[in-house]
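User: Hey, my collaborator sent me this sequence without any context and asked if I could get a structure. I don't really work with proteins. Can you help?
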Amino acid sequence: MRNKYNEQLEQLNNEMVMLGSLCENAIASAAKSLIDGDMALTRQVTELSQQIEQKERDIVSMCLKILLQQQPVATDLRTVSSALKMVTDMKRIGDQSADIAEIVRMAHIAESDNMLNIHDMAVATIKMVTDSIDAFVNQDMETAMTVIRYDDVVDNCFDAVKGKLIELFSKPETDGEYAIDLLMIAKYFERIGDHAVNIAHWVLFSITGKLD
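Assistant: No problem. I've predicted the 3D structure and written it out in structure-token form, which is a compact way to encode the shape of the chain:
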């Protein structure tokens, strides 16, 4: 019975890693579709978002099965309950990546200096998602805390984008709709970073039993 239980927990870890990988690919593809103007990638992000949603449902079902069949206690209970919370944030990461792709598909955004900051936001959020899942699988408090601190990088990039867009709005020749689209994309990346922070907090809970 214990062997079966350990196999279920190991499978949960593997499924969480796969869901994390889907999220990373969705963020990266959304960013690349923006920077390269690749409309095929926007459709790929939509498909990834759907896969993330299905994987989230599978993991929820798996967690409920473990809770009902194995009735875990202490650390194992916190691990399973944390996974249930984390997958909600991961699903939202998929949704927001798809939202970015939808804006790119509809807006035909041209290359600009703001792309550098948005690219930096994408790179930072991918790192945060990757590290938060690694922290969960390895029960690594330090990595989880690093993810939380790294949110400042995303926030600083967002502030830089906002500053440049404020300058754009002050110019009469500026396409207001274009500037708003860029701001929305930057905001979605900022929210993805926030979800990665949420995941890291649940990792800490799974280890310590304490919520900040």
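In plain terms: The chain has six helices and no strands. You can pass these tokens on to your collaborator as they are.
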